[in-house]
Amino acid sequence: MSPSIEDYLPTGVTIEDVITMMAGASTFLVVVAVWHAFLRREIGGRRLRELAQRRQALRHDYLHGTRKRESMLSTGGMRQVVDRLKLLRTSKSEAMQRKLAQAGWRSSDALVRFLFAKLVMPFLFGGISLFLFQIMHLYHLPTMTRLAVIMGSVVVGALLPDIIVKNTILKRADKIRKGLPDALDLMVICAEAGLSLDASLKRVSEEFGRSCPELADELAITSLELGFLPDRRQALINLAQRTESKGIRGLVNNLLQSDKYGTPLAQSLRVLSAEFREERMMRAEEKAARLPALMTVPMIVFILPPLFIVLIGPAILRVIDALSHM
Fold this sequence. Notes:
Elements: H1 15-37, H2 43-64, H3 67-72, H4 76-84, H5 93-102, H6 110-135, H7 143-192, H8 197-207, H9 213-228, H10 232-242, H11 246-261, H12 265-325
Helix pairs in contact: 2-9, 4-6, 6-7, 7-8, 7-12, 8-9, 9-10, 10-11, 11-12
């Protein structure tokens, strides 16, 4: 006699009980599904919370690294001096703030420190040179020469902050230029995968956090601004203004045209990436072509004299020996 289903059930449990429990479970799942379907989801509120969290995370990442140095160099006294002289109200302060942002210094106290340094550095350099050459008489120089050295120190102190900012901008722009083609390739992949522009920028910034942190910072800020600025074009324009890079300006113009005329984003980014890679290859070929001219002087100075000594030295020694025996 073959076993039935009741043989596998626990003692006291019948088939009717099993059917009743399954029906109850099915009814419960249907009720939960219907309730979940009609549930009102606060998508906008969740999006705002996510943007706020991202904003706080970005602000923490950008400012926390320099917070220790900022605590060491308190800007309280600096700000009092700058405010008393009304240096923040000049017409050049806004342009200087933009340059400091291009150098990667976006904190609110960066402009105060720069203006204070530009004010103090001439007096500091002039005072040091005056102490060394006029009081300590470090070098016995004529009077006019000492005055020229002191005036030159004052001029160097006045120009040094601008030179530091300019060099920092150029180095940062060069790093961004080198990492931009790879970032565009990743943006093409993200665009072809169906991600939006702000999601693509956020993903690229996460991937380039180690290899090119300067480019990752700019793309992360742009992704954040695309999420909360009312005008998306302004976020892209801000990206071009924050960087001193032709590649970024080309990328921004491409994105603006794509947004205006509705052209495919992936195709335009692919063309732009190919152009940047070709430009990078041309730069490498240009450096390789300059190498023979650069190596000429070291070869003449360091290689040819030892070569002449090795080749002509024994013959000269034999001639000297022969003449001495005669």
